[in-house]
Amino acid sequence: EVQLVESGGGLVQPGGSLRLSCAASGFTFNTYDMHWVRQTTGGNLEWVAGIGTAGDTYYPDSVKGRFTISRENAKNSLYLQMNSLSAGDTAVYYCARVPPEIGNWYFDLWGRGALVTVSS
Amino acid sequence: DIQMTQSPSSLSGSVGDRVTITCRASQSISAYLNWYQQRSGKAPKLLIYAATRLQSGVPSRFSGSLSGTDFTLTISSLQPEDFATYYCQQSYSVPATFGGGTKVEIK
Asked: Which of A3, B66, B88, B104 can bridge B99 by disulfide, Cβ–Cβ 3.0-4.6 Å?
């Protein structure tokens, strides 16, 4: 079955760190760009990180310098290291796949999401 | 960053209704516009990509169109499973950005 499964979410204090993982199965992981998208409790969707098949990485200004995306193709896994977390980072974090269409980031497969809550 | 403005933020419809949702980009994005459906408690699901192209497996009652910086998602005949929230997303430039969503509710 083609799927993405996130893990590693939970409660973390402000200023703390958390690492999310995403396990991919059912497709050739190393041929796809992979991304993280988060959704706040208000329902807003925000793209937070992307990584290409060659390991090139992309971030919006809101997380640049705090979040690091990485991949381990041998394990069909995607990661998101999140540091210096604040309440504004509280959200459900989705792992998402981008089909190999050059220059067009649309997300054709999503995981079920991992809830990250930043609170003291 | 490119701002995506969706309208309306919510609408009520009956089964069989024709429904239209609009998304406006703050600048030209060519046809780099994608639509997603999110049912309650579930992850978003891709419906339309590149403004008009139907994702595999998506019913043909869904369609997308564009006119300049205005994009439209149309559901030709609303079905019970279509009651959900719909989001647009631009993929023209980094960062990718989403609209605020349109909740389609049962009248």
From this structure: B88
| Residues A2, A109: Cα–Cα separation, whole Å | 9
The chain B residue lying nearest A64, using CA atoms, is: B95
Q: Are A49 and A98 in contact (CB under 8 A)?
A: no
| Dihedral angle sign, alpha carbons of residues B58, B61, B62, B65 | positive
> A73-112: buried (b, 16+ CB within 10 Å) or exposed (e) per residue?
eeebbbbbebeebeeebbbbbbbbbbbeeeeebbbbbbbe
Contact B42, A93 (CB under 8 A): no
Residues of A in contact with B89 (CB under 8 A): 45, 106-107
Distance from CA of B34 to the nearest CA of A (A): 7
User: Averaged in consecutive runs of 10 residues, what is the pLDDT profile of chain A (120 residues)?
Assistant: 98 98 98 97 97 96 98 98 98 96 88 98
